[in-house]
Amino acid sequence: MMKVELKISNYQLIFLNEMIADNTPDNPHGLNKDAKAGFYLITEIAGKLLKKAIDKKGVLKPFKIALKYYEAFALHQFLLTFIDYEKTEKRRVTREILGLLNQKLT
């Protein structure tokens, strides 16, 4: 299966973890099938990102994180869905990560 390697900073990783936590429901109860599938997929990705955040705590240099192609695509779609359109730091970081994902997914 095709892997996608992203080179991100600890700051970007923390941001991703916070964004997922802020925009994911606590449980899938009451969601339709499509939303449940998305919930479980993004929850899997969140687990991978949280593990990496623990492993790389305090690391200052950017590092690589490997995602399966479908995980990278799902993360890309999640970020597009929840991007903050106000000119804030959140928008800047989201656009950086989306740019990296776009490069790797093409």
Description:
The protein is mainly α and 106 residues long. It is 64% helix and 11% strand. It is built from 4 helices and 2 strands. It has helices spanning 10-23, 33-55, 69-82, 89-105; strands at 3-8, 63-68. The protein has a two-stranded antiparallel ribbon. Helix 2 crosses helix 3 (69-82) and helix 3 (69-82) runs antiparallel to helix 4 (89-105). The relative contact order is 0.23. The model has no long low-confidence stretch (mean pLDDT 91).
Please render the helix and strand layout as text.
Layout: E1 3-8, H1 10-23, H2 33-55, E2 63-68, H3 69-82, H4 89-105
Antiparallel strand pairs: 1-2
Helix pairs in contact: 1-2, 2-3, 3-4
Structural class, by secondary structure, is mainly alpha
Quick one: overall form? Answer: globular
Q: How many helices?
A: 4
- What share of the residues lie within helices? 55-70%
Which strand order do you get reading across the main beta sheet?
1-2
Largest sheet: 2 strands, antiparallel
Let me know the average pLDDT: 91
- Overall strand count: 2
Low-confidence stretches: none
CA radius of gyration is 14 Å
Spell out the helices and strands N to C: EHHEHH
Q: Kindly, what is the distance between the CA atoms of the first and last residues, rounded to a whole number of angstroms? A: 16 Å
Give the DSSP E fraction (strand runs of 2 or more residues).
5-15%
List keywords for this structure.
mainly alpha, single chain, 2 strands, 64% helix, two-stranded antiparallel sheet
